[in-house]
Specification:
Length: 218
């Protein structure tokens, strides 16, 4: 019964976060919508919900390392760990002049928190509960992780239907890499690190830029 309920969580997550992003964008503007929407997503969905379903001990076990990661037999996994980081460098280098140093510095803690929280729900919860079913442990959360990226786009009132699907298409292969890495290592430690570093290289967009805009307004 519990596992069946978990399978419905991604749909409820996507719907509720989409509503939060859209409603607060209308009420307070895009920047506040991004901040509030991601805070709701991280605290409620990525921390509290997994904690409720897993319990404290299993929740903490998500971060435990079973064996040393950087060793010869894990060469394929190490490549998967590095792929998102290398890909993010192609964004980082040409955009150095576009974003300020402050944006980058704010992006470090903001992105680390967001990326780690995301891995708790999308990889940790599903790998832990459905480890013996690769379809549910890897492919199921990968699809919905990509689809979830439609929700933050709801903060942009004028977003077109075509633009709405750009991020989900980009994050689909990325989510697959993260799911494989978490599944094979049986921990979210390394996938959270990879996710965080690649996000930092993307300047923590859009959360860090939204924080800066709100601060400047005040």
């Amino acid at each position: 019964m519990k596992n069946r309920l978990i399978l419905f969580l991604p749909i409820i997550l996507i719907v509720t976060t989409a509503i939060i992003f859209r409603v607060f964008s209308i009420l307070l503007g895009k920047s506040w919508s991004i901040i509030i929407g991601f805070s709701f997503y991280q605290i409620i969905w990525c921390i509290i919900i997994p904690l409720v379903f897993l319990g404290k001990n299993s929740f903490l076990e998500l971060f435990k390392q079973k064996e040393r990661f950087f060793q010869k037999k894990n060469i394929v996994l190490i490549v998967l760990f590095l792929l998102p980081i290398i890909g993010a460098l192609f964004f980082f280098i040409p955009n150095l002049s576009k974003y300020s140093l402050l944006t980058f510095l704010i992006g470090i803690p903001v992105t680390t928190i967001n990326s780690t929280c995301e891995e708790i729900f999308w990889r940790g919860l599903f790998v832990k509960e459905f480890y013996h079913n690769k379809l549910l442990a890897i492919f199921f959360p990968t699809f919905f992780f990509a689809l979830w990226h439609v929700s933050p786009e709801m903060a942009n009132i004028s977003v077109s239907f075509n633009d709405l699907w750009i991020l989900p298409l980009i994050t689909l292969p990325l989510g697959f890499v993260y799911s494989i890495l978490a599944y094979k290592t049986k921990t979210i430690k390394w996938v959270a690190i990879s996710h965080s570093i690649s996000g930092i290289l993307a300047f923590g967009v859009p959360i860090s830029t939204s924080i800066l805009e709100v601060v400047r307004i005040n």
